[in-house]
Amino acid sequence: MRPAVQLLAQPQLDAIVEVMGGIEPASTYISTALQAGRQVITANKQLVAAQGPPLACLGPLRFEASVASAIPIVETLADALGADRIGSIMGILNGTTNSMLAAMGGGASYADALADAQRRGLAEADPSADVDAHDPAAKLAILAMLAFRRRIDPSQIARVGIRDLGPGQMEDGRRRGFVIKLIAAAAIHDGARIEADIRPRLVPADAPMARVHGAMNAIAVDAEYAGSLIFEGPGAGPDAAASAVLADLIRAAKGVPASAGSLLATLADTSPVTVVPLGPTAPYPAAS
Amino acid sequence: MRPAVQLLAQPQLDAIVEVMGGIEPASTYISTALQAGRQVITANKQLVAAQGPPLACLGPLRFEASVASAIPIVETLADALGADRIGSIMGILNGTTNSMLAAMGGGASYADALADAQRRGLAEADPSADVDAHDPAAKLAILAMLAFRRRIDPSQIARVGIRDLGPGQMEDGRRRGFVIKLIAAAAIHDGARIEADIRPRLVPADAPMARVHGAMNAIAVDAEYAGSLIFEGPGAGPDAAASAVLADLIRAAKGVPASAGSLLATLADTSPVTVVPLGPTAPYPAAS
Predict the structure, then answer these.
(1) ipTM for the complex?
(2) The CATH number of the domain where A91 resides is what?
(3) Does residue B253 sit at the A interface (CB-CB below 8 Å)?
(4) Nearest to B210 by CA among B239, B247, B166, B180
(5) How far is A277 from chain B (nearest CA, A)?
(6) Are residues A225 and A259 in the same domain?
(7) In 3D, which of A9, A11, A10, A41 has the Cα closest to residue A26?
(8) Closest residue of chain B to A225, computed from CA coordinates
(9) CB distance B230–A234 less than 8 Å?
C-alpha cells in the first residue's frame, strides 16, 4: 500500500495537506479524506480549477496557496469582498514567464531566457505549463469562480503563451512606452457574460502591472464598493507556499469556516458558463 | 434617552456597527454592546488604537474598516499571516496628506493644498488629525499590534507632519529622483525592540510607494516566509468603508472567529511596549 493511502487510513487524522500537484492521485486522496470527515488544505491549482466545486461539496476544502502563493487573494475574494460586487480581475499570475519576459527585455532570446529559467529551477524540463499559459489559466479560473460566483472550466479560457516573443518585440514595445507582460484577465458584464483570457499585452510603462518584477505576482481587483485594489507579492517558492498552507491549517484548527471552499461548493450543481476571450484591445493591447 | 442608548437596550439585537468615530461615547456604547453579548463592528481607528485590547476582551470586536478602508489588511495580518513572522510594515495610511503632497508637487503652497483638500471634503476644518499625522499614527498602532503581537500606545509613536513642507522641497526632491510621501513605518528587531514613526520621507521615484496617487493607501509587509507583500487601494470614502464593514458583518453572521479582535485581547493584560523612532535614514531618508 502506498504511504499516502496508509496515512489516509489512520483513524486519528484531523487534517491533510496536499502539495503533490496534478489531478490524480491527488483527487482520489482528497475525496477520501473529505468523505472521512478530515479537513483538507491543498496548493493544487490544477485540481481546484478543474474539480474544486464537486470536491468542496464533500467537506471543508481550503486552497489559499493554490493561487499566487502567500498573497491572500483566495480568502480576500471569498470573504473580505464577500459583500461587494466584483467587475473585473487582472493580474500577472505566472512568475516563471514574468522572469523570462524580463530577461528578453534585457536582450535574451526566448531560448536563452527559457534555458536560464530552467537552470534556476523556475521552469520545468517541459515548460508548457508556464510558457503556454496553462498554469495561469488554472489560477485565473479559480479567481474568476470566486469573484463572479459562476462555474468556469479552465480549458475554456483562451490562452496565448510567450513562445512567439523575442527581444525584438520587447525592444519595440519599450520604444513606444510599453512593457510586455503575460496578463491574465477576466471580467463580467451585466452580471452574466464572462470574458477571460491570458495573453501577452502591451502594458504602459507607468501602470502598476508594468513594475511587477522577476517572479513576483500581482492581482488587481475592481469592486463596485471597495474600489480598485492591488495585491502584490512572491508568486511561488517553498517558503511563501508554506506560509499560505499553514495559515489555512490554523484556520482549520480554529474552526474558521472554509469560505472559498463553501463558495465553490455552491457552484457544483451548475454547468460551466461560456467564457469568451477579452480580445486584443482590453485591458491592454495584445502584444502578439 | 439618546437614540443610540435606546437602540443598545433592545433585547433582540445581534450586532451593532459603530461608525461615529472618537473615543466617547463610542467606547461606552461598544463596551455596553459587547458585555450584553452583541457582536460589534467598528471603523473607529482612534478607539481601536487606544482601547482595542481591553474592549476586545469583552466580546467579538471586528475592525477591518478602521485601517485603510476596504484594503483587507487587518484580517490579513491577524489571520492570513497568522503562521508567519512579520519583520516590518510600511505604508501610506493617510489619503488626505497624500493628495496634498501631490498638489504641492504640482506647485501649490501648503496653504492652497490644504484649502483645496478642505473644499473637496478630504480635510476637516481642523486639519490636525491629518497634517500632524495623528490619524496615520492610530492606524500604524493597530497594524503594529497585529503584526508584532505587542501592545502599542499610539501616543508613543513619533510623528512629523507635513505643515513645514512646500513646493520648493517637492521640486528639490524631484530633481534628485525622489517623491516626498508621508510614510508610516514600523519594525521589530530581535523579536523585541519596536521602532515606529511617521514622517515625510524621500521615496525613490521608481519605488512602489512613490506611485501611490491621490487619496489611495498602500501597505508593504515583510514577512519571514510570505516574503514582501504590497496591498493598495482607496483608503477612504463611504463606499469602501461600507464594503469593509459589511464584510465584517457577514463574518459575524457566519460565526467566523474575530481573529484580529482575539489577537488584541491577548495583549490586554500587558503594558504598552517602548516604541522608539525609526529615525531619519530608514526606510527612506527623512524629507524634513
Answers:
(1) 0.94
(2) 3.30.360.10
(3) no
(4) B180
(5) 27
(6) no
(7) A41
(8) B239
(9) no
